[in-house]
Design goal:
12 helices, 9 strands, 35% helix, alpha+beta, seven-stranded mixed sheet, globular, two-stranded antiparallel sheet, 12% strand, disordered C terminus, 3 domains, 435 residues, single chain
Length: 435
């Protein structure tokens, strides 16, 4: 026996087993609860279900520790809906279509083969979209992969890219710059914020996607501590809509000095729901101040201008984002019951001016709290708003509170939408999110 291993008392072991059994029994009991039989019982069940769903979503938004319980709530609701055949109930389905579609979509995230959160299994998504999301061959050469494996070699990596541009036409020129993210670490190293972004131009006439290829860069004197490489590919779809595809790759560093790149999912290291962060498809780049070199600031602006030119983002047949409903800043169903609207109170543009179904995508659940909070409190959103730090903190909290509020008389945005109370707001159909 390993003498350093901690001892577990019989009492503690029995308590852990008892607790585990109690949780399983409670879950089983909840799932085996009687099905509603009358219209009154059905309505009461929907109201309770929506409250549980919104409360658990809010807890999951505030803390990663709440995500497990939220998924358990979603799975329990999905189980009851299926077992009691509630979605096919002629009295319920026309009244609560938003709720039934929402639970069905969220429940996919709890399945092992739907880690991306799409309406198809991960295997099919990667097989069907690989033609768009491959890393360009010229970024996979051994020489370049060695240069982007450490911070110290970053200048040489950029020289490598400059040399590539010498042989490319003006329309084929690579856009590239390095920066530090103010929002998130890489998927494999949450403490790593340095990036090298390379925008590889596409050709919509020939169906060639534009690719945003981003290498995580290790911090100084910490080589090979970051493996992630991400690709966001953009193509033009019908009605000039941008169709966006995603894939994460991991680098493998071998003892002999060689480096290879393979899909994160193919390596068996899981993946993350894409639209949690990428409501707008490509994300604009707002680096930490001072982390973009002076001669690269114009390239940063050019890249962000290209992002703005993509227009509304779609994800093809893989997910219908309107099923997630309206987002932060949407007018509440009973605006007269509020003292003032957020945009009026804080003298800013409403979030929905840009973040709507015809623009950059609604900021709705599931969403990443780090990104939302950083954009609002960090001064980047709302656009052109001259607000103090304290006011920004207040604005952020009120945006979140109005979205996740649970109140029978004055429901929040998510609760009201799930109950069908926002089916027509200011003349707009639910899900359009147009201001």
């Amino acid at each position: 026996m390993n003498k350093s291993a901690p001892r577990v008392s019989v009492a503690k072991l029995c308590f852990a087993v008892t607790l585990c059994l109690a949780i399983r029994l409670a879950t089983a009991t909840a799932r085996a609860a009687p099905c509603p039989r009358t219209p009154q019982q059905s309505t009461a069940w929907i109201n309770r279900a929506v409250e549980d769903l919104v409360r658990s979503a809010y807890a999951a938004y505030r803390s990663e520790s709440g995500q497990t319980r939220h998924q358990r709530v979603v799975d329990g609701l999905a189980d009851t809906i299926q077992r009691c055949r509630l979605a096919g109930d002629a009295g319920l389905s026309p009244r609560y279509p938003e709720f039934f579609d929402y639970v069905k979509l969220l429940s996919l995230g709890g399945k092992d083969d739907h880690e991306l959160g799409f309406e198809v299994i991960d295997k099919d998504y990667f097989a069907e979209t690989s033609q768009y999301t491959t890393v360009p061959d010229f970024l996979l050469t051994p020489a370049f992969l060695r240069l982007v494996s450490s911070f110290q070699d970053l200048p040489q990596a950029k020289s490598f890219l400059h040399d590539l541009n010498k042989g490319r036409t003006p329309s084929e020129q690579l856009l590239f710059f390095s920066y530090a993210s103010r929002h998130l670490g890489t998927p494999d190293n949450p403490d790593s914020y340095r990036r090298l972004l390379i925008v590889v131009p596409g050709d919509s006439a020939r169906g060639v996607p534009e690719k945003w290829v981003q290498f995580g860069i290790a911090d100084p004197r910490k080589p090979r501590t970051v493996r992630n490489v991400s690709v966001v590919a953009v193509t033009r779809g019908a009605n000039d809509e941008s169709i966006v595809y995603f894939k994460d790759y991991y680098r493998t560093y071998r003892r002999n000095g060689s480096i290879s790149i393979n899909g994160r999912w193919e390596l068996g290291e899981g993946d993350d729901p894409c639209v949690t962060c990428h409501k707008s498809g490509v994300l604009p780049i707002f680096p930490v101040a001072g982390t973009v070199a002076g001669d690269e600031k114009e390239i940063l602006e050019t890249a962000n201008a290209r992002f703005r030119g993509y227009g509304a983002a779609g994800f093809g047949r893989y997910i219908d984002t309107t099923k997630f409903g309206p987002g932060l800043g949407t007018s509440p169903p009973n605006p007269d019951s509020r003292t003032t609207s957020l945009s009026t109170r804080f003298k800013t543009q409403s979030c929905t001016v840009c973040h709507n179904g015809n623009g950059l995508g609604a900021l709705n659940w599931p969403m990443d709290s780090t990104i939302i909070k950083s954009f609002v409190t960090g001064g980047k959103m709302p656009l052109n708003a001259n607000l103090t730090r304290a006011v920004r903190a207040q604005l952020y909290q009120q945006l979140v509170n109005e979205y996740f509020a649970v109140d029978e008389m004055r429901p929040g945005i998510l609760q009201a939408w799930l109950l069908g109370r926002m089916r027509v707001v200011h003349g707009n159909e639910v899900g359009s999110n147009t201001p």
